[in-house]
């Protein structure tokens, strides 16, 4: 499942998890997060995929929205992040966690209503392959949302400053990302970046 680069990224996020980073939303996040949840229009009963779920802080909220028979299928490369996500999320009957790569998602074709890439997309080193695999699992009319609570400039500088493993993991301009989605036959629903970042596409 993982090559040397994936293993290095997983190890970096293992260390972040052990240090307690990315574990909770802070009060300043809540207004922007509420806006994103409204944009995503996730409904009870839907099947939602969350690549790069980290500590499960968003997974927990998504599971409360979809409720059984809906489901949130969340995955990450980091074993330590998944351990923390399992403590937080697995009491929720609508949540499932796994260790997986976004370029090889163990989910059947066309079975997902929403894919939420939250604070994760820059870490998908083969962006085109990731988008194509996401398209495979989305049903026609399903939506992909790629979002960050902070601006592209802040996200990118944080990655540059963090460590060699993720120093090159840069969030592209929203227009460039929208063009990539179009090339994979998505209809663009939203393309914006200012104090936060969000690009959405509908699978044709």
How are the SSEs placed, and which strands pair?
Blueprint: H1 4-18, H2 30-40, E1 47-51, H3 57-66, E2 71-76, H4 79-89, E3 95-99, E4 112-118, H5 127-137, E5 138-148, H6 152-162, H7 174-183, E6 186-193, E7 197-203
Parallel strand pairs: 1-2, 1-4, 2-3, 4-5
Antiparallel strand pairs: 5-7, 6-7
Structural account:
It is a single chain. This protein has helices at residues 4-18, 30-40, 57-66, 79-89, 127-137, 152-162, 174-183; strands at residues 47-51, 71-76, 95-99, 112-118, 138-148, 186-193, 197-203. The chain contains 7 helices and 7 strands. The protein is of the alpha/beta class. It has a single domain (4-203), classed as Rossmann fold, CATH 3.40.50. 42% of the residues are buried.
Runs with pLDDT <50, length 5+? none
Tell me the structural class: alpha/beta
Main sheet record: 7 strands, mixed
- String of helices and strands: HHEHEHEEHEHHEE
What is the residue-mean pLDDT, rounded to a whole number?
96
Count up the helices.
7
CATH structural class: Alpha Beta
- CA-CA gap between termini: 28 Å
- The helicity comes to 25-40%
The CATH topology label is Rossmann fold
Annotated CATH architecture:
3-Layer(aba) Sandwich
- Tally the structural domains: 1
- Report Rg: 16 Å
In what order do the strands lie side by side in the largest sheet? 3-2-1-4-5-7-6
Would you report the number of β strands? 7
């Amino acid at each position: 499942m993982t090559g040397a680069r994936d293993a290095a990224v997983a190890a970096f996020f293992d260390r972040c998890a052990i240090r307690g980073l990315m574990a909770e939303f802070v009060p300043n996040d809540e207004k922007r997060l509420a806006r994103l949840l409204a944009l995503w229009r996730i409904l009870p009963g839907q099947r939602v995929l969350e690549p790069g779920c980290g500590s499960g802080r968003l997974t927990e909220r998504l599971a409360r929205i979809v409720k059984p028979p809906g489901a949130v299928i969340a995955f990450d490369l980091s074993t330590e992040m998944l351990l923390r996500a399992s403590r937080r999320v697995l009491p929720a009957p609508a949540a499932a966690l796994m260790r997986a790569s976004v370029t090889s998602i163990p989910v059947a074709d066309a079975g997902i209503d929403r894919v939420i890439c939250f604070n994760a997309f820059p870490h998908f080193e083969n962006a085109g392959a990731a988008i194509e695999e996401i398209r495979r699992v989305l049903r026609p009319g399903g939506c992909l949302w790629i979002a960050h609570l902070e601006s592209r400039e802040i996200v990118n500088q944080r990655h540059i400053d963090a460590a060699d493993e993720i120093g090159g993991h840069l969030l592209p301009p929203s227009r460039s990302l929208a063009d990539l989605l179009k090339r994979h036959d998505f209809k663009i629903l939203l393309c914006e970046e200012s104090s936060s970042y969000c690009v959405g596409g509908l699978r044709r």
